[in-house]
């Protein structure tokens, strides 16, 4: 990919993240205001979620630019790790907010069961809030998805922001609908749940959402730790490497495939039967890189000549 094309893609990503940033700031302020006027912790959690998205968008814009930097003396293997680090800490922030929400909801239920007072909900602002938030989140999710496709489906940042917009929209919609259904519980066998309905909604939504940032955290942390790519990816790349050496009197000794951010690193360990020159290795690596790019997208390949495979447990 040319330098001009890289800059064009970076601008598209930057514009998308900039729009998402200000959209999330508006939703965060609206959520906090709506929570204050409605006495709803569920709406507050939604507002705080948008607040994290706003702060994350600021960092994401910087990450999107940093990963385009070429390797230098400070980072001889490039800046790909910045993307995985961003996803890791963003996931940690969301896990923290959801854990706080769950703890607060359980505390409210315990307080109510012990005879304590629980503020009554004001349903007036909730409907308008839900309509506005779901509309904005849907727009941001579509924007990030469109940008992700236009930029070659490579950006982990855009995937994360798209997922966040979808989750935020679902959170807003589900919380609002659940809270608006509370008045219909009056006069039924479930009327006793009305005072703590808000806390129950928080528990249900938080429990449903929590697995997503946990998965993202584990995946990004694995990338930073240098975990191997999936077996499916390794098998496809191994076949490409085997096809590349067919008829060249070269044996495939070993293969390593790792993913860090949006870029894969592939190391092929080869044992040639004949004497080879450095230029021959470079020429072969260039061809192998082209094959891998068609399979993996953004990739860096290295060839190591050796007789021994790696010592793995």
Verbal overview:
66% of the residues lie in helices and 9% in strands. It is mostly helical and 313 residues long. Helix 1 (3-38) runs antiparallel to helix 4 (124-150) and helix 8 (231-245) crosses helix 9. The two termini are 38 Å apart. The model has no long low-confidence stretch (mean pLDDT 86). The longest helix has 36 residues, at 3-38.
Q: What is the strand and helix layout of this fold?
A:
Elements: H1 3-38, H2 41-66, H3 81-113, H4 124-150, H5 156-180, H6 197-209, H7 211-224, H8 231-245, E1 250-260, E2 263-272, H9 278-296, E3 299-305
Separation of termini?
A: 38 Å
For the largest sheet, list the strands in their spatial order: 1-2-3
Structure class: mainly alpha
Using the CA coordinates, give the radius of gyration.
25 Å
State the helix count: 9
Portion of residues in beta strands equals 5-15%
Question: Fraction of residues in helices?
Answer: 55-70%
For the report, how would you describe the main beta sheet?
3 strands, mixed
The outline comes out as elongated
Number of strands: 3
Helices and strands, in N-to-C order? HHHHHHHHEEHE
- This entry's quaternary arrangement is single chain
Which ranges are low-confidence, i.e. pLDDT below 50, for 5 or more consecutive residues?
none
Q: State mean pLDDT (0 to 100 scale).
A: 86
